[in-house]
């Protein structure tokens, strides 16, 4: 008998060079394992997106980062859905042949996966994405024409009745950069990730609708020494399929409780890299009764630890160990009872 659904949140912030989750869907195995432990797992596109690779599970909820922040604050709830009508925005800056490749990828998900897509919209102006890197090494970026992106999203929502938005923006090709070479070989930071987050945040903040992004890039030359963690991005012309799959079942955002909606006070545990505890969502969860588990061996370019923030957490070495903590917590068993030694009770102070 289930007293109530055990709910966990898995966060691997984007663009910070996480050892697991900093590449092309390489945190997906963690999410799959965690979904077997929890009744409900809430996570975000950076964890689940793997270019043309994906693995949807009924109890995993695909929630964009800004929406996850609002959820953690208790301002938005998550309303599970059976299916979303997904609208597709294509950047006018994408070359004709590359645009056709992305339209064909979208059509393929309709024909082979049965997804429901609206007609697509091409932005009235090239978005002109620019990439930036912070002093910490984390990536971010800017959009030259955000108003064009918002006009395209508004058209899809108001005229095509889109319930979720996928964006494909033309990103700069930088095939000779050291950063790209390091990333392809399993080191460094994904230089695209920070700018991708800016794009999806903008639409979610403006329209309170699920959104995710796939970059449009020219295929790179074949390199036999590519890291397995980055290899999903070497498979073809587009990263779009995983985004469309995720958005097709992404929960809707609601501002008032509804039947079966999920709210932050129902979250039992959050799992996050040990050095990446400064984000809005984790700070919000730390103020409540949610158990926070930090993973040491998922290193990042940051150094924002729970100790630095004065945050009470359970620190583990690996995701395997984090899974054990979740199992014990779900079973109502103190993790102290699973250790070979245990201190005696002490008397409370007056």
TrEMBL record:
Highest taxon of the source? Bacteria
> What is the name of the protein in this document?
DUF3326 domain-containing protein
InterPro entries assigned to the protein according to its UniProt record, in alphabetical order: DUF3326 (IPR021763)
């Amino acid at each position: 008998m289930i007293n109530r659904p055990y709910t966990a949140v898995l966060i691997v912030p984007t663009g910070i060079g996480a050892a697991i989750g900093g590449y092309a869907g390489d945190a997906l195995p963690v999410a799959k394992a965690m979904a077997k432990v929890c009744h409900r797992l809430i996570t975000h596109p950076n964890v689940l997106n793997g270019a043309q690779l994906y693995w949807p599970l009924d109890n995993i909820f695909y929630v964009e980062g800004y929406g996850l922040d609002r959820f953690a604050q208790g301002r938005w709830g998550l309303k599970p859905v059976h299916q979303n009508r997904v609208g597709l925005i294509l950047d006018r800056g994408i070359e004709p042949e590359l645009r056709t490749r992305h339209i064909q990828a979208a059509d393929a998900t309709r024909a082979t996966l049965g997804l429901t897509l609206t007609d697509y919209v091409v932005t009235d102006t090239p978005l002109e994405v620019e990439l930036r890197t912070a002093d910490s090494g984390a990536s971010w970026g800017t959009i030259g024409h955000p108003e064009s992106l918002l006009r395209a999203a508004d058209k899809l929502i108001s005229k095509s009745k889109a319930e979720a938005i996928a964006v494909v923006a033309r990103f700069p090709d930088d095939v000779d950069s050291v950063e790209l070479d390091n990333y392809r070989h399993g080191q460094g930071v994904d230089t695209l990730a920070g700018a991708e987050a800016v794009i999806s945040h903008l639409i979610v903040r403006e329209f309170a609708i699920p959104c995710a992004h796939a970059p449009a890039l020219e295929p790179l030359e074949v390199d036999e020494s590519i890291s397995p963690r980055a290899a999903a991005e070497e498979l073809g012309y587009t990263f779009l399929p995983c985004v469309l799959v995720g958005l097709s079942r992404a929960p809707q955002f609601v501002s008032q409780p509804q039947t079966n909606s999920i709210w932050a006070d129902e979250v039992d545990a959050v799992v996050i890299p040990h050095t990446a505890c400064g984000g809005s969502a984790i700070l919000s969860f730390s103020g409540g009764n949610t158990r926070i588990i930090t993973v040491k061996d998922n290193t990042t370019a940051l150094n924002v630890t729970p100790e630095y923030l004065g945050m009470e957490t359970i620190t583990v070495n690996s995701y395997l160990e984090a899974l054990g903590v979740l199992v014990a917590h779900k079973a109502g068993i103190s993790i102290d009872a699973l250790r070979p030694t245990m201190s005696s009770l002490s008397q409370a102070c007056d």
